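Weekly puzzle thread! Below is a chain. First person to post its structure in token form gets bragging rights.
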Amino acid sequence: MDPMYFDGLQQHRDLYHDLDDDGDDYIESLIPRLEANVMEFVGGPDADASLNDDPLPDIAFDWSAIPPALADDTASTLGHLDRAAIELLDAEVRTIARAVLAAVVVTDRGVFKRSAETDRLAAGILACLMKRLSDGMSKQQKAETLGWKVTSQKNLAEAMGVPPTAVTARAKTVCHVVARADIDWPTFLHSTQRRQALETKASIANWRER
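Winning reply:
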């Protein structure tokens, strides 16, 4: 499940504030689906029970599945990726981006044949992740909630010295590859994503206790 945010209970209740009991019935019918969405998003019952919003640790790049012939280009991409993630986004994004890079190289062995410009691939990966992690957020929210120094693909491209059109094209390709890659997304949930899941769980609990 990709979306970062879940439908909050309060926004639904606000829409139905003039329906009295019918509004409450609507919320009651919504809760089971909302709970199932949260549980699927975070990785199942065990992950849901132990859910926290601690920052993701610094997880090293996994070289185990990278073909030797692609090691140099992968290392070059990783260098650009690590540097830009820390300078422009955050350490958690760096950890997630490392997992995405490994998955992209394994899933699409021709990734460097189409373009050997590794800075563009790194920018494309970060642009794809920015969209995934901040979908529905305003530029102000990205800056204030996530603390990012760049809030759009254009900003990212300019900061990394890569043409914006190239970043857009690479991000599109990366997102398509990621969609079919074997990535354990619950393991790589950003703390902001897990915080939103916790807030949704708290809203459900508060609703039931009212």
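Puzzle host: Confirmed. Bonus trivia for everyone else. The radius of gyration is 19 Å.
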